[in-house]
Amino acid sequence: MSAFVVGLDVGGTSMKGGAVTREGVVLHTERRPTPRADGPDAVVAAIQAFILDLSHIPPAGTELAGVGLCVPGLVTPDAALFSANIGWRDVPASAFAPEGVPVRLGHDVRTGGLAEAVIGAGRGVADFLFLPIGTGIAGACVLNGSPYAGATGWGGEIGHTPVYPDGEPCACGQRGCLETYASAASVARRYASRTGRTAPTEEIAIRAATGDDPAATEVWTDAVQALSLSLATYTLLLD
């Protein structure tokens, strides 16, 4: 009997999943919204349902060998310990999948950094920083081809480095974090607080570029400046 695995990447806005054979053949991919506004228990339930649905897609005669699950926040292979964006604490890996199915958890961005090192833009590069910007911000510091997690698992969490010491409060409990100013969710939130209007982040960026919307220009300038400060510090520490 041939085997396949289910892979799921959980973000603050959407979840991307797929079923893949041992040989790397992609059998199916799918995207679903992350019900973050409904609370952490709802997100766990949505992940369970997504994994169950993906496990039934491959044809008869195939067997689910395991689940690889990438989630944001502080993560060990066996538990999702904390996520400021989703709000969960100490969720065991077994809670996400059908009973008896092996599950391995990974930090979403460090796993993405590993993928870039193995099959993406980081191939052949020993050291690099992988920095996706989405609902939140985190970085994967890849050293000698492997993501560095640090002694306690917070390695690469550049989104929670303060850039403005007396700045706006962050969900992590600090003030002035990079994520509070430069993540896609924060750009949209800060724009709405100034204008009373909601707009997607890409539209805010366009309005800032044209110079026709002072609020968009202010919010986007703050985001770029915060990101520049963090990246300058990161570069000087590592290079």
TrEMBL record:
Keywords: Kinase, Transferase
GO MF, one example: kinase activity
Protein's UniProt keywords contain Calcium: no
Keyword Amino-acid biosynthesis part of the UniProt annotation: no
Pfam name, any one: ROK
Family listed: Belongs to the ROK (NagC/XylR) family.
Protein name: Sugar kinase
Taxonomic lineage of the native organism: Bacteria, Bacillati, Actinomycetota, Actinomycetes, Streptosporangiales
